[in-house]
């Protein structure tokens, strides 16, 4: 079994800054260049993928520790945990077949980060404010900032992808889909 983790980068920012918008544009740009892309979204609100009345909901409600629903084009896995898995474990277990994993959130992890910044949300950064986060790779912003890491144009997803390709020495995919 391959124990090498796919490269991963977390996009962090204050709420409402545009993390999801940027990550979706990056996924599209990476796909157009031939890369296989994984995505992980951190949700602090205890999301539910199952809904009352659905068979999958009934399976998990009756006590299934893992429940997988599959169709001809996709699958979803619901796995119950006593404590959340480490991000590296999720990448290893579910993303071995991708060239890069884009993560939204998980501000506290030690994986490389790109902070998304909009001037209208304030001048201070999460990774260069009260705390200095050494895992910060770059900042994607809509304004000029004086930084010790590269400043990327938030409105140029192609530039952010160029930075990711260079930083992680990405090559278009030769990985097989599971």
Q: Return residue spans where pLDDT drops below 50 for at least 5 consecutive residues.
A: none
Side by side, the strands of the main sheet go 2-5-1-6-7-8
The average pLDDT value, as a whole number, equals: 89
Report the CATH topology name of the domain at 8-46 and 83-167: Rossmann fold
Q: How many H/I helical runs?
A: 4
SSE order, one letter for each helix or strand: EHEHEEHEEEEH
Describe this structure in words.
It is built from 4 helices and 8 strands, in the order E-H-E-H-E-E-H-E-E-E-E-H. The two termini are 14 Å apart. It has 178 residues and is of the alpha/beta class. It has helices at residues 19-32, 55-61, 87-94, 157-167; strands spanning 8-12, 37-41, 66-70, 75-79, 100-104, 113-117, 136-141, 151-153. Helix 1 packs across helix 4. It has a domain at 8-46 and 83-167: 3-Layer(aba) Sandwich (Rossmann fold). Strand 3 and strand 4 (75-79) form a beta hairpin. The strands form 2 sheets. Strands 2-5-1-6-7-8 form a 6-stranded parallel β-sheet, with helices on one face. It has a two-stranded antiparallel ribbon with strand order 3-4. The model has no long low-confidence stretch (mean pLDDT 89).
